[in-house]
Design goal:
This protein is of the alpha/beta class and 259 residues long. It is built from 7 helices and 6 strands.
Length: 259
């Protein structure tokens, strides 16, 4: 029987439609693939762990930590300077002692609570915790100083060890500053009840006081001459590298003295 032209067209359209459905269905069915193998974690050094804590950060107060305290004469914020210096200290430590594990409490402009910062030492089993800060007061006070938490009511179970760490860092940082600024002053070591140095948060106890901790106030950046040395001329990048190297050398000297 002969089909009309209209019938032929309908038949052809039906065949094309059927083939299209089959082809489309085949395209949407894909064979399962094997899951990707888990990535291999980076190797961890067997050497001691050091936690570097760049003070402040972010835009809001968190857990007792303000986003920023000091501002330099030229307007630079302490939180940015501590982060910059913290990274330089990390790099100096990694260069001087490749077997060291260096942990940063922050690597970006974020704020962390004071106990959270100290907990990084507890959680990583760190031997040393150093918190980095810059000072400001009345645009004339000068000098570098290092703080440890006092014993007795201050709750520091390893005060003498903390003082040893603080003195090793303090003397070297003062020398580094003095090499660039003849008016640099050594304000020495101070015992201050600072929450970021709380032994419970650091993981220390009377039976296990592995961690040694201090807080370094590098200079009073609201002083114009200090601001010039650290941030303007003639070579602020080198000044900061020298300070970072001094901090790193003090940390390594302390690790050697306690090994």
């Amino acid at each position: 029987m002969m089909m009309s032209k209209a019938g032929i067209r309908r038949c052809c359209l039906f065949v094309v439609f059927t083939l299209l459905v089959v082809w489309t269905g085949c395209e949407t069915v894909t064979p399962p693939t094997a899951p990707s193998p888990p990535s291999t974690p980076p190797p961890t050094s067997s050497g001691p762990t050091v936690v570097i804590d760049p003070g402040h950060g972010g835009t809001a107060r968190v857990g007792g930590s303000s986003p920023n305290n000091a501002t330099s004469y030229s307007g630079k914020l302490e939180k940015h300077l501590t982060l910059e210096l913290g990274k330089l200290v990390r790099d100096a430590l990694s260069s001087l002692a490749p077997d060291l594990n260096v942990v940063m409490t922050r690597t970006a402009d974020v704020n962390l609570g004071l106990s959270t910062r100290a907990n990084r030492a507890r959680d990583t089993g760190a031997e040393v915790f150093v918190s980095l800060h810059f000072n400001a007061f009345n645009a004339s006070a000068r000098g570098v100083e290092t703080h440890v938490r006092p014993g007795g009511d201050g709750g520091n179970v390893n005060l003498s060890q903390d003082r040893g760490l603080a003195n090793r860092i303090q003397s070297r940082v003062f020398s580094a500053l003095r090499s660039h600024d003849s008016n640099a002053k050594d304000r020495g070591l101070k015992e201050t009840r600072l929450a970021v140095l709380n032994d419970l948060s650091l993981g220390n106890s009377s039976s296990n006081s592995r961690n040694r901790a201090c807080l370094l106030e590098i200079e009073f950046i609201d002083v114009q001459t200090v601001d010039r040395v650290l941030n303007i001329a003639p070579n602020p990048a080198q000044v900061k590298r020298d300070i970072a190297a001094a901090i790193a050398e003090g940390i390594l000297a302390d690790i050697d003295a306690n090994s």
